[in-house]
Amino acid sequence: MKKLTTYLLAALALTAMVVSLGSCDRETTTPDPEVGTLVFEIMTAGVTPATRAGTPFYSVSLPSPVSTVTVYVFERNESGDFMWTRSIPLTEWSSAGTSYVYTVPEANMLPAGTYKFLAVGSGVITGYTLPTLDESLNYNNMTVTGTSTDTFDEIYAGSSDNVTITSEGARVGITMKRKVAGVMGYFVNVPVNQEGVKPTALRLTATTRNTGVNLTSDLGITPSAAVYNILDIDLTGLADNGTVFTGATIPGIVKLDNSQLQGHFVFPVEDVILELGLYNGTTELRTWEINNGDPMTLAANHLYTLGTKQLPGSTAGDPDSDDQKPDSGIDLMTDQQIMITVDTSWDDVTDLIIE
Q1: Whether residue 338 sits in one domain with residue 251
Q2: pLDDT, greater one: 139 or 24
Q3: CA atoms of 35 and 83, how far apart (whole Å)
Q4: Most buried pick, 17, 70, 141, 311, via CB within 10 A?
Q5: 198: which residues sit within 8 A by CB, 6+ positions away?
Q6: What angle do CA 316, 319, 320 make, to 5 degrees?
Q7: Is the same domain home to 158 and 193?
Q8: For residue 78, how many C-alpha atoms fall within 13 Å in the half-sphere facing its CB?
Q9: Which of these three, 163, 178, 193, is where a domain ends?
Q10: Residues 241, 239: Cα–Cα separation, whole Å
Q11: What pLDDT score does 241 carry?
């Protein structure tokens, strides 16, 4: 299932031409009404103004603010390459907001030339590493990688077209989108007995992963061939009724009875095979294939959900959504299919099948 999200840019009193975003290489000269100024008009797509930090997440409604934003400036050289020349931290960005207009101080104005601008925003970063910022850094090589802790939050980025700066200044519009994918699992009636053995974990595993993403292409980088647990739900110590686990309480989350819920962010990855399994320690007790075991892509700014949960504080679905759906967890006692969806605040909604 796919949905198209419309993002509305807040009306501004200043009248100016906005440099539209995209990957094309057309050049745009954008004189600002206030001669000699450089103005950045930054917004985030798919972000609700609220407070949330870190993973995991527990619904497709992700109130995850961007609290830190930096604009990276790349100037075109004689060879036609865009090379890093400076960084502009937007220190006044509010973590409760989704848009910001920033005027570069006159003393910091860029010299005449042709530039690309890359805005990068995040919440609480605990696991990201940027490349070394020096004049050898090409725009096309602007990446982030994750540390071994894998406790990173969402990261957002957006680029301008080629912008020609003149003495009249320019206004540059940039929309930032998520550069990670999200995966969430919502399960009910997880069995407590598999041929006499009690499971200790419910895991969604991937056959491969990437440990970084290129912020200008949305492609994953630095692959790892090791099997990766995207979701790892601990079942040890949970109460049960003799047949199924009765579920774990999550502070601030309202969910179905006898349900297990978890979500995490991952870097984009292609040709990955997903599998859901019940485990006792590292011993596999039972597995379900996703998408008939066919390889699939986890794309940037896509949220893949196993089951349906639109809001963290309700099981009735989102009344403000055009497609309100009540909670629907995957019943592991009966279901042979798992649906993965992406909320309207993301680029796409994708349904997956588990068998």
Answers
A1: yes
A2: 139
A3: 26
A4: 311
A5: 192, 280
A6: 150
A7: no
A8: 0
A9: 178
A10: 7
A11: 94
- In this structure, the answer to whether residues 233 and 334 fall within a common structural domain is yes
Helices and strands, counts by H and E, the chain: 0, 24
Range of the domain at 334: 181-349
Residues 222, 177, 18, CA angle at the centre, nearest 5°?
A: 125
Model confidence at 218, in pLDDT bands (50, 70, 90)?
A: very high
Domain check: are 129 and 234 in the same one?
no
Q: Whole-angstrom Cα distance, residue 264 to residue 303?
A: 10
pTM above threshold 0.85: no
Which amino acid, 291? Answer: N
CATH of the domain at 202: 2.60.40
What's the structural domain count of the chain? Answer: 2
Tens digit of each residue's pLDDT (9 = 90 or more) over 301-330: 888 888 888 888 888 888 887 778 888 889
Q: Which of 193, 174, 152 is nearest to 53 (CA)?
A: 152
Instruction: Tabulate helix, strand, coil % of the chain (nearest 5).
Output: 5, 40, 55
Which tokens hold the place of 188? 């009910």
Helix, strand, or coil here: 179? coil
Amino acid at 60: V
